[in-house]
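ugh ok so i messed up the first submission bc i forgot one of the chains. this is the corrected input, ALL of the components this time, i swear. 252 residues overall. if the numbers dont match what u have on ur side tell me asap before i send this to the collaborators (the ones from the other lab, u know who)
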Amino acid sequence: MGKYANLDTKIFALFGTSSWTAEGIKTFPANFVAMDAGTEFIRVSIIPAGPGINLKSVSGIVLIEIFVEANKGPKRASYIADKLDIFLSGKNLMPTTKIAIQLGSSAISPLGNDPDNPSLYRTSYTIPFNYFEVM
Amino acid sequence: MGYKALINKNVTKAFALLKDLAEEITLTKKTANNFNFNTQTATAIESPVVITKAVITDANKTASDRNVLTKIMLLKTQDIGDITLYDKISYASQTWLIGPAIISDNFITVIEVRKEV
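and heres the new structure output, hopefully the right one now
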């Protein structure tokens, strides 16, 4: 596998763990239209658009859109962001001895009501990453 | 007979009067879908297909950077029930995906189906 597929595999796998699913937060990836998503869910996108230290390395951000019920204040989105931090922030993932993924410190930003469904409020959670692979 | 039944009866009659303008289509609906983060695969449960009639009210082909064929279909809501984005329509021996424009009331549903050509 190449760097992009490796990134997807390792980062998405965090959301397939029993400890994350036990949180009960519906989680979907980008390019997936969920049915009955309900009033609370997150959507995960991996954006490897930054430079790397060599041709096999890359940096970028993991963008997670947090959708919660609108008109309820920021508390729930912040709670979900804190949960995400437990699983992502500062983590070092080493799928093989030649590959390492370092996740940095997260940030959240309120985006307002979702244009497709204004009954939901959208908050972006971003966390930078560096993917290193030995040439 | 209540108003709903009366209107549905007349919609059925209208489709019958359209004769060959109302063409046979097969609708495959998703009833549930899921994404497995470990295998990165999407799985969908599809309901039994619905065979019904549709009237093509408009068609256009865009060719800005690709050829995309779009058709607008008029269907009887009573036959198809609730449909969602990316349900599939089989029409004229080809598979089409339902696009974002779905207008539906209790009697008539208008959908946009798309296909790369």
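quick check: The longest helix of chain A spans residues 75-88. that seems consistent at least. The beta strands of chain A are 26-29, 41-50, 58-69, 92-96, 99-103, 107-113, 120-133.
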